[in-house]
C-alpha cells in the first residue's frame, strides 16, 4: 500500500507547481489541468480501470461495470492560487491506493466501484466552487456555468471548448447520478481538531452553510497628485471600510468571513481608482447567522459607498446550505476508520464536492490529520504515516460498502 501511494504522490507532485512559492496553480482547462488529468488517466488505466469523462468534464475510473448502486470515491485535482499539495489530490491518490490495497488483499467489489475527479472544485479560475459537482447534480444551470468568466474575461464555455470538450452538453446528468449508490470523499483536514484529539483520521459530521458574494465599487478615476480630497470619488475608501466591517461582523456572529480577492482598476500608483471589485467569502454555524452577517456587511458597504460618492453593486455568486451527513452512514464509516474506537466526528467550515452530492446521494467524508492546521497554502501537510492511515481507513470503508470478497 505505502509503495504505490508514495510512487503516485511523487509522480503527481511536480505537476502545476509554482517553483517560486512552492504552491500549486492547477486551474481548470489550463495546461497544468491537462497534465494532472493525463496523470490520473494513466494511473487509472494502469490499474485496468475504465476511464470516462462525463459531459461536465468530471473524470470517472470504473472497477467493474458502471453502476447501478455504485460506491464512488475521489476528490479534485485543481487548486487555489499557490495552494498546498494535499487539498484535493490527497483524496484522489488515496482512492487509487485504496484500489491497490483491495487488490493486494485479494478482494473484488461486489458493487461497482469508481474513483472520480471533479473539475473546478476550488472555483479559483471561474469563481464558483464545486462547479463540476454542481453541474452534475443540477445545482447550477448550464447557461450560468457557460457564462462564468475568469479574470481575463475567458468564459467557462470558451475555455472548455479550447480544451477539446463540448460546452453545449454540460448540465445535470441524472442518468450518471443514478449509478451512484454512495459517495465517500477523503480529504486533508483544514484545521487542527484531529491534532488535538490525537487521531490520524476523522469523519465529517456537518458542513457549515457558506457562500461567495461579489462587491463592485465604482467611482471616478483621477490624478493622485492634483485632485483635492474633497473632490474625489475613490472606491478604495468604502472598500477598505467594508473589509473592516467584514471582520467585525464575523466576530459578532461567531462565524468566519474573508475578503481575499480584489481587482483594482486602473491599478496605477499615481491614479485614483475607478473601480474596486472584491469577493466576500462567509461561513457560519447556521444559515440565520450567515444571512445576518452578509446583510450587515452589505448595509455597511452601502453606507460607506454613499459617504464617498461611490456606487455599489453586489450579488450572491454561490451559496451552499448546511450539510448534515447521514448519521447511520457517518457512524458506519467512523467505526471502520477508527483504531479500536470510532473515528472522531468533526464539523467543518470548508466546502467540498461531498457537500454538494449529499443533497442527491448518501455521502460521507473522511478527514486526515494536518499537523500544521494550515490549508490553501504551501505549508499544508500530512505526515507520511497519516497518509497511509488514511488509505487504510478508506480501503476498509470501500471493502465494507462494496461487499468486497475473494473470488
TrEMBL record:
List of residues binding Zn(2+) 1: 76, 87, 187
Membrane spanning stretches: none
Binding site for allantoate: 212, 270, 283
Superkingdom field: Bacteria
Any Pfam family matching the protein: Peptidase_M20
Annotated family: Belongs to the peptidase M20 family.
NCBIfam families on file: hydantase, PRK09290.1-4
Protein name, entry field: N-carbamoyl-L-amino-acid hydrolase
Annotated source species: Actinorugispora endophytica
Amino acid at each position: 500500500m505505502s509503495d504505490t501511494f508514495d510512487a503516485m504522490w511523487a509522480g503527481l507532485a511536480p505537476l502545476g507547481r509554482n517553483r517560486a512559492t512552492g504552491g500549486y496553480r492547477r486551474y481548470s482547462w489550463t495546461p497544468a489541468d491537462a497534465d494532472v488529468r493525463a496523470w490520473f488517466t494513466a494511473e487509472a488505466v494502469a490499474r485496468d480501470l475504465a476511464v470516462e469523462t462525463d459531459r461536465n468534464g468530471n473524470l470517472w475510473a470504473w472497477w467493474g461495470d458502471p453502476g447501478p448502486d455504485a460506491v464512488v470515491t475521489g476528490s479534485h485535482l485543481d487548486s487555489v492560487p499557490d495552494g498546498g499539495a494535499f487539498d484535493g489530490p490527497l483524496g484522489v491518490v488515496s482512492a487509487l491506493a485504496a484500489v491497490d490495497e483491495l487488490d493486494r488483499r485479494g478482494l473484488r467489489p461486489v458493487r461497482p466501484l469508481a474513483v472520480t475527479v471533479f473539475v473546478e472544485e476550488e472555483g479559483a479560475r471561474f469563481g464558483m466552487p464545486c462547479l463540476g459537482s454542481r453541474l452534475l447534480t443540477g445545482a447550477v444551470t448550464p447557461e450560468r456555468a457557460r457564462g462564468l468568466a475568469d479574470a481575463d474575461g475567458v468564459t467557462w464555455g470558451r475555455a472548455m471548448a479550447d480544451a477539446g470538450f463540448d460546452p453545449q452538453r454540460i448540465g445535470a446528468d441524472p442518468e450518471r447520478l443514478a449509478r451512484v449508490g454512495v459517495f465517500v470523499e477523503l480529504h486533508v483536514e483544514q484545521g487542527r481538531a484531529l491534532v488535538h484529539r490525537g487521531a490520524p483520521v476523522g469523519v465529517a459530521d456537518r458542513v457549515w452553510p457558506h457562500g461567495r458574494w461579489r462587491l463592485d465599487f465604482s467611482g471616478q478615476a483621477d490624478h493622485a497628485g492634483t485632485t483635492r480630497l474633497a473632490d474625489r470619488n475613490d472606491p478604495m475608501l468604502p472598500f477598505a471600510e467594508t473589509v473592516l466591517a467584514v471582520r467585525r461582523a464575523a466576530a459578532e456572529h461567531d462565524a468566519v468571513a474573508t475578503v481575499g480577492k480584489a481587482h483594482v482598476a486602473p491599478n496605477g500608483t499615481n491614479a485614483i481608482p475607478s473601480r474596486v471589485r472584491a469577493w466576500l467569502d462567509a461561513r457560519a454555524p447556521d444559515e440565520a447567522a450567515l444571512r445576518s452577517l452578509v446583510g450587515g456587511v452589505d448595509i455597511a458597504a452601502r453606507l460607506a459607498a454613499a459617504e464617498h460618492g461611490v456606487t455599489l453593486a453586489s450579488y450572491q455568486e454561490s451559496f451552499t446550505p448546511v450539510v448534515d451527513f447521514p448519521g447511520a452512514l457517518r457512524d458506519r464509516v467512523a467505526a471502520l476508520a477508527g483504531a479500536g474506537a470510532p473515528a472522531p466526528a468533526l464539523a467543518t467550515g470548508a466546502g467540498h464536492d461531498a457537500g454538494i452530492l449529499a443533497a442527491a446521494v448518501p455521502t460521507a467524508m473522511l478527514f486526515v490529520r494536518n499537523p500544521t492546521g494550515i490549508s490553501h497554502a504551501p505549508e499544508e501537510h500530512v505526515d507520511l504515516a497519516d497518509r497511509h492511515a488514511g488509505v487504510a481507513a478508506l480501503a476498509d470503508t470501500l471493502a465494507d460498502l462494496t461487499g468486497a470478497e475473494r473470488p
